[in-house]
Specification:
The protein is an alpha+beta fold. 43% of the residues lie in helices and 12% in strands. The chain has a 3-stranded antiparallel β-sheet, with no helix packed on it. A two-stranded parallel ribbon has the order 1-2. β4 (117-120) and β5 form a beta hairpin. It is globular, with a radius of gyration of 19 Å.
């Protein structure tokens, strides 16, 4: 299916790039990612790097921001991402098109429980779906895009960038014995 082809394609691209880097002597690769759909391919590639005497690290921008400050933790297209866009390129933000979030249940018995998950008898079960299958407005999460401010975005971008710089400095010093 399409999902497996995309995933396989992501892995192949990352493997080709990292194979070239390892051939040229690179032993530490940091992947800065902003799309959750890339995570698995990056993690698989990092594991392959370890088999080749190298290391790979995944810095997922959106997750890092939410860990640095729980108030920043958000969902797809919500306040967190909107705040980042207001800080970096406000011309891309069109709040006149904002719609309220109204989750779509998979069925009456399997209700929306956040992004990939459905609720079955009080238990959350992953049922991966594309965002348009559970959100007609394109966003979801605890953070409505309406809550976003440029100031939030600026503070979040700086804190996340500072963290990434600190991590990379420490990652560079890791012994690959």
């Amino acid at each position: 299916g399409m999902v497996s082809w995309c995933e396989d394609g992501r892995r192949r691209v990352l493997e080709k790039v990292t194979d070239g880097l390892v051939r040229d002597g690179v032993r530490r690769c940091v992947f800065l990612n902003g799309h959750g759909g890339n995570d698995q391919a990056i993690l698989d590639t990092a594991l392959q790097l370890e088999d080749k005497g190298a290391l790979g690290a995944l810095l997922n921008w959106w997750q890092l921001a939410g860990e640095l400050n729980p108030k920043w933790k958000g969902g797809h297209g919500g306040g967190e991402e909107t705040a980042a866009m207001l800080a970096s390129d406000p011309s891309c933000v069109h709040m006149e098109y904002h719609m309220p979030f109204e989750p779509k249940d998979l069925s009456p018995d399997l209700t929306f429980a956040g992004s990939f998950n459905v609720n079955c008898n009080g238990v959350s079960v992953p049922v991966p779906r594309h965002v348009d299958r559970y959100s007609s407005c394109g966003w979801y999460g605890p953070d409505s895009p309406e809550t976003a401010t440029k100031e939030w975005g600026e503070e979040m971008l700086k804190a996340t960038a500072d963290f990434c710089v600190d991590f990379i400095k420490k990652f560079e010093r890791v012994s690959l014995g």
